[in-house]
Amino acid sequence: MVFTRILVCFSVCFFTLNSFGQDALKLSDKVKKNSIIFSPFNLIDPINPSFQVGYQRLLYDKIELQMEYGHIINKALFHYIINPDEGKEEYSNKGFKVRFETKRFFRNEGFFRYYLSGELFYLQNVSKVQNQFLVSDPDYNYSFDLPNDGEQYGYTDYFTNSKTKYGFNVKFGIKLVIDPLFFEACNGIGIAYRNNVHSDRENMNDEPYDTSFLNDNIPKKMYILNLPLNFRIGYMF
Questions:
Q1: How far is CA 170 from the centre of its chain?
Q2: What is the structure's pLDDT at 19?
Q3: Between β-strands 34-38 and 207-208, what pairing exists: parallel, antiparallel or unpaired?
Q4: Which has the higher per-residue pLDDT, 167 or 212?
Q5: 231 vs 42, 74, 161, 164, 228, CA distance in Å?
């Protein structure tokens, strides 16, 4: 049901974009229609780091399709700099991302092309993370000693989080074309459905200390606001 709603939103966005823009936008017949792309910023994503590449196909002067695949890497690159002594299995990630995007160009100014787009995405990541939790049962057999002072006690646990996330974005982007290379920046807004499932925890009944949507590992199903921001480098052929 959720996926059906997302498809309906994507279709509405596509037809809206298709009716917007200047009919005067016309490219040369010699313009290369195929591109391969690389998204370097994904390598430093602190939550879901990935090596992400993709393919673009210009169908008409105004319409372009894009597909991306991201292989989630063990850690973001900056993590090796700020914490080089951390073990390989600590804060680990394993999974993938896929994205499908339809772009509608509405303005062409020399080297620059401006577009609006609709994007569907899906993410799957199994990660080793840590969060703080509140003790729900003082009589539970924890692996650590609890203070006997009658106060609520919190602790940090290292556990496995299995995450799935999918949704829909509407984006604005600018492409700088220096044939055969191009550079592309985009941002936007969207909605995502996220499901986190925990395992290997001290006590599965303990609630997280941080229950806000900002806690990316909170163990529940929920809709969240998505704010995509990316930069790509591409080669046309």
A1: 14
A2: 46
A3: unpaired
A4: 167
A5: 9, 21, 28, 24, 10
pLDDT tens digit string along 151-188?
789 999 999 999 999 999 999 999 999 999 999 999 99
Give the 3-state DSSP-derived string for 11-59, with helices as H, strands as E and coil as C: HHHHHHHHCCCCCCCCCCCCCCCEEEEECHHHHHCCCCCEEEEEEEEEC
Q: Look-up: residue for tokens 């290292």? A: 158
Express the helix, strand and coil content of the chain in percent, nearest 5 each. 10, 50, 35
Q: What is the DSSP letter of 166?
A: E
Amino acid of residue 98: V
Strands 207-208 and 181-199: unpaired
| Tens digits of residue pLDDT in 115-147 | 999 999 999 999 999 999 999 998 899 999 888
- Spell 77-99 as b/e; 16+ CB within 10 A means b: eebeeeeeeeeeeebbbebebbb
Place of tokens 């939103």: 9
Contacts of 41 (CB under 8 A, 6+ apart): 229, 230, 231
Tell me: pLDDT of 107 over 70: yes
